[in-house]
């Protein structure tokens, strides 16, 4: 299934399971509530992005606009969010209106690999847990580099394989990997070293990489708790089979995390001024 169709199908159910933020949480403690932890990830990204007053941020793969609205409340500038999912963009626009932020938060359906935005027009490229859905990462990073002004900054967080799976593991785990695809959309989770190399090839200078694997782990338990808590509503939206798949996907990811195979990172890179 195409990524856009996938996101159109799951958006409402995900809002119950994940909240307004379609991304992992960074837990200060395992007993933090999920919304606090997902906000913490936005805080870490914002601290790195450090946009000056009046800055323009491009939110690449913006979900239902949760992070964009949060950002608009936490700095004095504008955010333009793009996503390939029309349903996500509709929801984001409605959310911006309700929040009274439609003047500073705008949204459009666009493909991050060819985003149609003007060159050198943004101070920050904000790529929050969407890059794993874009197999042509070199192109994503080239587009981010293009829209940034000289001196602008890319902040990108996502899942990663901490070590490459060998062929045996891929064959062995193919049912598990297929389950992850069904639940989260066809993903290409990358190795950190590849991100760094591709950012450099796009003309960006990597400023820092932070490992958030430990702090993000409790997210998977929080999603499972919400799947149980909102079981009837989630079933009405995507059906019991898809809900069971989601719970299983959390188990699979949790086991990968615990085995040190998968984790989470935040990468910061600058466009030379
Ligand atoms: N950044 C948001 C959403 C993350 S979910 C948040 O943290 O809440 C991943 C998002 O990436 C979805 O909105 C999905 O529609 C979008 N996406 C996936 N592939 C894309 C592409 N090629 N171009 C633009 N957006 C894409």
Task: Write up this protein.
The chain is of the alpha/beta class and 273 residues long. The protein has 12 helices and 8 strands. The longest helix is centred in the C-terminal third of the chain and has 19 residues, at 240-258. The protein is globular, with a radius of gyration of 18 Å. The mean pLDDT is 94. The structure holds S-adenosyl-L-homocysteine (SAH).
Please count the helical segments: 12
Low-confidence stretches: none
> Bound compounds, please?
S-adenosyl-L-homocysteine
Beta-strand portion reads 15-25%
Report, as a whole number of angstroms, the end-to-end distance.
41 Å
- Rounded radius of gyration (Å): 18 Å
* Shape verdict: globular
Number of strands: 8
Average pLDDT number: 94
Helical/strand content category? alpha/beta
Sequence of secondary-structure elements: HHEHEHEEHEHHEHEHHHHE
Q: Determine the fraction of residues in helical runs and give it as a percent range.
A: 40-55%
Outline the biggest β-sheet: 8 strands, mixed
Describe the protein's topology:
Layout: H1 3-18, H2 34-49, E1 56-60, H3 66-74, E2 78-83, H4 86-98, E3 105-109, E4 122-128, H5 137-147, E5 148-161, H6 167-172, H7 174-184, E6 190-191, H8 192-201, E7 205-211, H9 213-216, H10 218-229, H11 231-238, H12 240-258, E8 262-270
Parallel strand pairs: 1-2, 1-4, 2-3, 4-5, 5-6
Antiparallel strand pairs: 5-8, 7-8
The structure holds S-adenosyl-L-homocysteine.
S-adenosyl-L-homocysteine (SAH) binds next to helix 1, helix 3 and strand 2.
